[in-house]
Design brief:
The chain is mainly α and about 100 residues long. Helices cover about 60% and strands about 0% of the residues.
Amino acid sequence: MNIVDLVQRFREAQTTPEYQFEKIMVDLTEQICEIMQTRGISKDDLACKLGKSRAWVTSMLRGDRRLTLKTITDIFWAFGYKTTIKVEVRYDEEQDVSD
């Protein structure tokens, strides 16, 4: 496989719901880490706020856990944030616009 094929496959993958899900999870985890770092919140602190173990927080930050919307909301609430979800129309060739 050459680089052109690899780039094409990556572009195709970016249009899948699986890719979008993983991207959302990575973005959320990065936001959690950024807040923790900025506010000096340790894994132990977050675990205590959530009623979870430090091992659970570590596993979550590594991406080993599939987080529910409830858990995501609880994490950001513990930081003093409310959670909102924004959806956007996707624009790609395979967009299904049927009812």
